[in-house]
Amino acid sequence: MTQAMPVTVAIARRTDPARTHEMVAWMRAGAALAESFPGFLGAGWVRTAPGSPEWHMLYRFADDETLRRWEESPQRHWWLTSAQGIVEHTRVERRTGIEGWFEEPVDQVVEKVAPAGGGPVAASTPPRWKQAVTIWLAFFPLSLTATLLTARFVGGAPLALRTLVMTLCLTPLMTYLVLPRITRALHWWLHGRPAPWRTPRRPF
């Protein structure tokens, strides 16, 4: 049997910037509804820029089945219909595993049509070796700190118990705190762009 993996859904939406307060209230209502469903792991949203009509919303469920229950629920249907005429849905992505952290968000569609009749061009994803380095940079200090703490406070416990405590603490820290921050900090390197401190200044 294959192990169920968490699924992250990323949705791009567009609305009139003058209705920002309505948009925020609507997204909060959707997150509150999703929280009551089994398997819900979290939700959030970000705006492309101040005053921009583009919004990116993400929600995460434990597996495909729990996600399906939410997406087919009457609660979600009511929530979506309540925004008709206010919100336009422009893109939906589904991501599994840890690679979703590294994909660069795009403002339009996930697949862009290449010129001269070429095939679709997918959104850029950093090379796997860069992903591995980024994960190691996040995992090494956490693992070292956890090892020192467990050796000091529960050093006499069985190895299996110490490992259980470490993984229970490290997994949410990696997923929700450390990895998102380090991928933001290294975004320029992951996508082959100049370092922020090397960006040439514009003349006055």
Structure overview:
The chain is α+β, with helices and mostly antiparallel strands and 204 residues long. It folds into two domains: 7-106, Alpha-Beta Plaits (2-Layer Sandwich), CATH 3.30.70.100; 128-197, no CATH class. It is built from six helices and six strands; from the N terminus they run E-H-E-E-H-H-E-E-E-H-H-H. The protein has helices spanning 20-35, 64-71, 74-81, 128-153, 159-185, 187-190, and strands at 7-15, 40-47, 54-61, 87-96, 112-113, 120-121. The chain has a four-stranded antiparallel β-sheet with strand order 2-3-1-4. 10% of the residues are buried.
Question: In terms of topology, how is this protein built?
Answer:
Layout: E1 7-15, H1 20-35, E2 40-47, E3 54-61, H2 64-71, H3 74-81, E4 87-96, E5 112-113, E6 120-121, H4 128-153, H5 159-185, H6 187-190
Antiparallel strand pairs: 1-3, 1-4, 2-3, 5-6
Helix pairs in contact: 1-3, 4-5
